[in-house]
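Table S2 (continued). Query chain:
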Amino acid sequence: MRVREAMTDAPSACTATASASDAARVMWDCDCGVVPVVDDAGCAVGIVTDRDICMAAYFSGRPLSTIQLGDIMSRDLCTIDADADLAAAERRMQERQIRRLPVTGDNGCLIGMLSLGDVAQAVGSDGAAPASGRDGQELVRTVTKVSEPRLQA
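Corresponding output:
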């Protein structure tokens, strides 16, 4: 199975100059915990999570409307091509201990998001496991790996 078959199409995104409040609104409206950050061409340049927003507000003591995403987003972006195999996406999630991957097209611009939930739905859907030769064990390994505590610096 290919990433494009499991991903969420056309995710809402924000620019780096948008506020944390804008991203929080997207998260509320789209029922998600992450917002990709894109440049003017629509290419992913970062990602911001609900935790990033929470910690930025807590540590800065400022309203979300005054915090720019460019100041709090993760720039160490890990993406996956839409035509990549779903197993490759899971390996990337395991290696980087991440639960969501921005999906890019041929031009490198954002076309989707792949979450662990998307992978679970693909693996658990009728016929998905036999067609892909998977039995769900790789998903269990992925969830286990991304859930391991990270070493604190």
